[in-house]
Every structure is written in structure tokens, then in C-alpha cells.
Design goal:
By secondary structure, the protein is of the alpha+beta class. The chain contains ten helices and eight strands. Strands 1-2-4-3 form a four-stranded antiparallel β-sheet, with helices on one face. It has a four-stranded antiparallel β-sheet with strand order 5-6-8-7. The chain is globular, with a radius of gyration of 19 Å.
Length: about 250
């Protein structure tokens, strides 16, 4: 049986469970706070809001209600940001990516999409595959994709996932993080299990990852912008990897 906090996390909201209340993070958009209030009323899940704190008014919430919350369908899927989200300046200098309303994200990839942005990695669109095809998250530019791949390979090389996760279309401006079936068919529960593992790490380490990214890449803006633009993906990844390893050596981490 899920708790309300677990259900909110699975649906993609940035929250933190405290002893007797749930913190609704300011990393969520202002709009989704009001949308969530309405959804909880519609699902007959009684809560009390005090600023960004959620107090549960029902000790045991029926699992059917929480399942409806977890799998509440997305509306008006996200896409946009223009050329700014693809820019080297945005990537190298911003602490966080843009806030994304959970209600435009599909459950299987919602928390991971928001966690990426929290860690300063920008995406432009996503789809969880609806249990019928491969999920994907599309990065804004090769630099966001290459930086994510470096983190993913460093932290998850020994992790057992339900599916094989990899980058697709690395020769394009918009590169997809997607998955292949191994031993199981497409299953949204299993996709969610995988993406939650990655998302929780990114959220836990978001400040460190963002600080490291800016420390590595924000200097020599004009020179590096030109260099990055001329690199193919594999060259960019290797360059980022070398920079990261040199920082590890300098910091003895």
C-alpha cells in the first residue's frame, strides 16, 4: 500500500515527507499547486494546506484513490523553450533548468524529467510510451545529453534496471534518452521503477551536480561555445569526460 507522499512522488511532484506533513517543493510550478488541490478534492482525498505544507486528514487512504492519483493522465504535453534552452550559455551558467508542470508530464517519466531540470539538465519533451512502446525523454541540445550520459555512466553502470536505457539519435540536435526491452514487455510500472531510481539520485545530488557542471564549463564562454558547436556528440562527450576526471583528481573525490 502506498502513502500519499509516495503516490505524489510517483506522479512526479517534488515533495518531501516530514514527520507529520508533506512539503510541496517550490521547485514545482505555482499552477500545479492549485491543480493538485482540485485533483485531491476530485479524488476525495482530504488534506489541509498551510502554505506549502500538506497535512493529511485521513489516516488510511484507499489504495484505489492513490492509484488514480499516480496514473492521473497528462494534459497538453510539454514542448518548447525556443532556441534559448539549446544554448551553451543556458547550459553552462544556469543552476536549474526551467520548472515544468507535472500535469503535462506522463507518469512513467514525470519525476525523472523534473529531476533532470532540478539538476540543471534541460529537456524539451517526453513520453512514457503508454505501456505500448519505448519511453523517451528528449534533451535540448547535445551538451545536455552528453552531460547526462556522463552522470548516468558514472552512477548507474552496475544498476540492475528492468530495461536497457541508452541515448538515441546522437547525431541530431535533439537527442533522446530511451530504453530497449530485454526480458520483459513494456510495462508502465516497470518503466516507473527504472526512472524513479535515476530521478531520486538526481534530486539527492542536484546541488552538487549543478555546481560541478558550472565549475567545469562556465568559463571561457565564447571560445567554448564555438568549440562545442563544432564538435560531434562523441567528441563532446569525451571532452566533458576528460574535464570531469581532471576535476575529480583536483578535488580528490
Amino acid at each position: 500500500m502506498y502513502t500519499l507522499a509516495q503516490a505524489l512522488e510517483k506522479r512526479g511532484f517534488l515533495i518531501k515527507q516530514e514527520e507529520d506533513y508533506i512539503v510541496f517543493s517550490h521547485g514545482n510550478t505555482p499552477e500545479e499547486r492549485y491543480q493538485l488541490e482540485e485533483l485531491l478534492i476530485d479524488l476525495n482525498i482530504p488534506v489541509q494546506w498551510e502554505e506549502n505544507k500538506i497535512y493529511e486528514q485521513e489516516p488510511l487512504i484507499k489504495s484505489e484513490k492513490l492509484e488514480k492519483l499516480i496514473w492521473y493522465p497528462a494534459r497538453n504535453h510539454e514542448a518548447g523553450g525556443g532556441n534559448g534552452w539549446y544554448s551553451w550559455r543556458y547550459f553552462s551558467r544556469r543552476e536549474h533548468g526551467p520548472k515544468i508542470n507535472t500535469f503535462v508530464l506522463e507518469t512513467g517519466v514525470a519525476l525523472l524529467t523534473k529531476a533532470l531540470s532540478t539538476a540543471g539538465i534541460v529537456t524539451i519533451s517526453s513520453c512514457d510510451g503508454h505501456g505500448k512502446r519505448a519511453p523517451l525523454i528528449a534533451f535540448s541540445g547535445k551538451h545536455n545529453a552528453a552531460w547526462f550520459q556522463l552522470i548516468f555512466q558514472q552512477q548507474f553502470h552496475d544498476t540492475v534496471f528492468n530495461y536497457k536505457w541508452y541515448l538515441k539519435n546522437t547525431d541530431m540536435d535533439t537527442i533522446d534518452f530511451t530504453a530497449k526491452k530485454i526480458d520483459v514487455d513494456w510495462d508502465l510500472e516497470k518503466i516507473l521503477e527504472d526512472t524513479l531510481q535515476i530521478a531520486r539520485y538526481l534530486l539527492q545530488e542536484s546541488s552538487n551536480l549543478s555546481e560541478t557542471k558550472r565549475k567545469l564549463f562556465r568559463s571561457n564562454y565564447k571560445t567554448r561555445r564555438k568549440m562545442v558547436k563544432e564538435m560531434i556528440f562523441e567528441e563532446l562527450f569525451r571532452w566533458m569526460e576528460e574535464r570531469y576526471k581532471s576535476l575529480e583528481f583536483d578535488l580528490n573525490i
